[in-house]
Amino acid sequence: MEKVIAILLVLFVYSFGFSQDINQFDENGKRHGVWKKTFKNTNVLRYEGEFLHGKEIGVFKFYKNIRKKAVLTATRTFNENDNKTYVKFFASRGKVISEGKMDGKLYMGEWKYYQKNSDKLLILENYNDKGNLEGERHVYYPNGQVAEKQNYVDGKLEGISTWYASNDVVLKTYVYVNGELHGESKFYNSMGDLITEGRYKHGKKHGIWKYYENGKLKDEKNFSPEGKYKKKTLTKKAPKK
To answer: pTM for this structure?
Structure first.
């Protein structure tokens, strides 16, 4: 009996001592050391990480409560000097969905998104110091071929945007100015043959749009205010007998 009491006492002291090593505050009331938090009214872990006098350091792990189990959903790697972190988001089975840098809640620098069923890139994009998209943004097919290529300036589309088939054939091109469709657009079939071309002006079709069939001009449609939506068919009709 005395041995049992002694063992229970040791376990109590050990568990009490361990509990005192987490979720602690320093002399100024700031979180310090290892912290672990659970979802409300459960024993399911919500996050765990380490604080240095109120500042997160090292790797923090964040979880979802799925069927009463803690499932890793994200990690954030902190440094001691600022709020910048390297972040990874995970699917419920542990696969990395996306990763990149954050400054507080703002995305910054290069961000990578991955294909659902492989570790190949799905999207590659960049953010400026304000958290807005900046520079080229690429979307990829599962085979690694570029599917979309766009350019951003401070969060707004700018310049030529191009869409591709999985065999690298151009399918369509747009021109953006300050986030708005403005300029020449072209559309192609899967063989790369031009099928439609025209211009946008401040987000709306403008001027003469041309439609092709088998490489030949078939129809035209005028989207200018003076000839709005007027369609001109160029295909010759067979003479009546």
So the answer is: 0.83
